[in-house]
């Protein structure tokens, strides 16, 4: 039995791709079970609820040597706590390759596309395996989520082609309406505590040499007014996270999905300096206008890497 | 232009897969050029000569940031000297994942099969690209070489299936006769200096913690009598290599392809102790009988890893 899971602070791709890949492996004769490494966000809950599906269970502490498959991530900092003791035999991912190594030859499938599910659809086709309606909808949801329905600069022609195929297999005629419903669900944040809002889509990255650790959160929303209404709480949660986790800085980008803009919360003077220097951005009342930089992976992280590399 | 190359001390898979993958990429619209990281062995020279092909040129020192594709390897110790300065955008490999990382998302295609060329054939099929006769013969030769025409325990069902397809595409009717001609060419070592014989198929591996570096050479031959006729010279070359490269030990496995046996040269007491303890092998007159362990990757390296891990 292979345990299949996506990254911590799971998003729709991390959950959907774990479910679909576990299903794919099982149908191919390799028993597999999907897990999650954290709580679902509101978008993913919406996707599963609409499909009448339960969330995959939380990953238990696996015994050393247990066989695992990673989807939508490969770096140990984003994975199971005892990853180095586990046996990784399969990875399907669309991120850069980090600190992963394997004890024996494994199946690794990385492509520079917008979403893991885009690669999964290729696996089905290469194996000449039919795609069930439920899996099609999960993969479709993951791609719409990761690419913000093609608004993100991470979108590739492969993602667009996959959505065409999957929408038809999933029986979804108005793809943009479905995407907007997903985004609205994601934006309905209710009374979620600020500390949890910060961590919904949050990753820690090392920058420079010797490495500084930076926490980078993103809230993609169709309702940025709601988030900025809670600005004071969020800034405090960021300061607390910076101290509790021993980070050099924390940023929270509020991405307006419909207008494709990024206004980023800046909790202190260290973050302000970096944001000004790395992006040439104006900072007013602890908010930096990062313009159309809506992709952390493609626009925020590379700019910070370049900035910190130039200072070492 | 992407530079495509296999590992140092290239074997037939490292050369053939570089040529075929460069051809594949170019036909797919990504200009690519194959290179090699060292001298061809006699088997590979035979394969290219029979096809009327030139060897790919030696890899020049590439400028920092140059785009490269790795085939049949991924560890920096087996790659271009300045790999860390180069931009790896593609890897096709069948080895375990080592210390590779990438700056941006890349195409990585690893499968636990017997030969890189087996994976390349899948790429052609997935792209619905016809396989030209020359490429078919290169891939066929690589698989026969890496699997010793299915004698090696690294052989998988995928390798067998690929050989069936490729033999037909290459117009080779008697596959075993062609394999034996390749192995005979490989075994015709003439007056090659002993230091070169040692390095023909040679890799350095770290074992244990803190890591000891061990050099492991293999000579696959249909004529082991020739090799043992040069035993004294080879043992001396091994001792010299151990000292020159600051290694903890050097072993040279002489694999009798037709009888599927491995007799390994043991240059000193440190190596003798390890061979006795790790394999439970008899050592007589500086030769250890390792029985049917003919695969370095599948049988020699894992046993040494287990042995050194148990001592730390």
UniProtKB/TrEMBL annotation, chains A, B:
Annotated keywords: Hydrolase, Manganese, Metal-binding
Co-factor requirement: Mn(2+)
UniProt xrefs under InterPro entries: DDH_dom (IPR001667), DHH_sf (IPR038763), DHHA2 (IPR004097), DHHA2_dom_sf (IPR038222)
Classification via SMART domains: DHHA2
Catalytic function, reaction form: diphosphate + H2O = 2 phosphate + H(+)
One annotated GO molecular function: inorganic diphosphate phosphatase activity
Annotated EC: 3.6.1.1
Domain DHHA2: residue ranges: 179-308
PANTHER family tied to this protein: BNIP - RELATED, MANGANESE-DEPENDENT INORGANIC PYROPHOSPHATASE-RELATED
Name of the protein in question: inorganic diphosphatase
Organism: Deinococcus hohokamensis
